[in-house]
Amino acid sequence: MLITVIRTGGFAGRERTASVETECRPDGPALEALAERALVEEAPVARTPVPDAFGYVVHVDGKVVELQDPHLTEAQQQLVDAVLAEAG
After folding, report:
1. DSSP class of residue 21?
2. Each residue of 6-39: pLDDT tens digit?
3. Pick from 56, 59, 74: which is nearest to 21 by CA?
4. Which residues of 25-40 are buried (b: 16+ CB within 10 A; e: fewer)?
5. Alpha-carbon Rg of the chain, whole angstroms?
6. Which residues, at least 6 apart from 66, have a Cβ–Cβ distance to it below 8 Å?
7. Which of 61, 46, 44 shows the shortest CA–CA distance to 9?
8. With DSSP H G I counted as helix, E B as strand and the rest as coil, what are the percentages for the chain, rounded to 5?
9. Domain regions of the chain by residue span
């Protein structure tokens, strides 16, 4: 499974992209399960914009979800953090 996260916004407004291919990784099954949960969970609806918040576009094997800080579920936040950690 290929998981890609694109993060935009924040104070500096820089874009950051990271991808993880779960095949052949020891933590691959755990990342795949986390991705499946993150895609089906509905994040709380943002009522007002949050200045300098991050926005995320998450691609998982052709499925795409757009997320906005601080309105992520626990699974969505864990997935974003895990994938972006791969970018260093």
Report:
1. E
2. 999 888 888 999 999 999 999 999 999 999 999 8
3. 59
4. eeeeeebbebbeebbe
5. 13
6. 55, 56, 57, 58
7. 46
8. 30, 30, 40
9. 2-85
Tell me how far apart the alpha carbons of residues 86 and 83 are, in angstroms, rounded to a whole number: 5
Tokens of 83: 């994938």
Q: How far apart are CA 29 and CA 49, in angstroms?
A: 35
Report pLDDT digits (tens) over 48-65: 767 889 999 999 988 999
Query: Residue 32 is encoded by which pair of tokens?
Result: 């795949």
> How many Å apart are CA 9 and CA 30, to the nearest integer?
28
pTM of the model: 0.88
d(CA 30, CA 32): 5
**Positive or negative torsion for Cα 66, 67, 73, 74:** positive
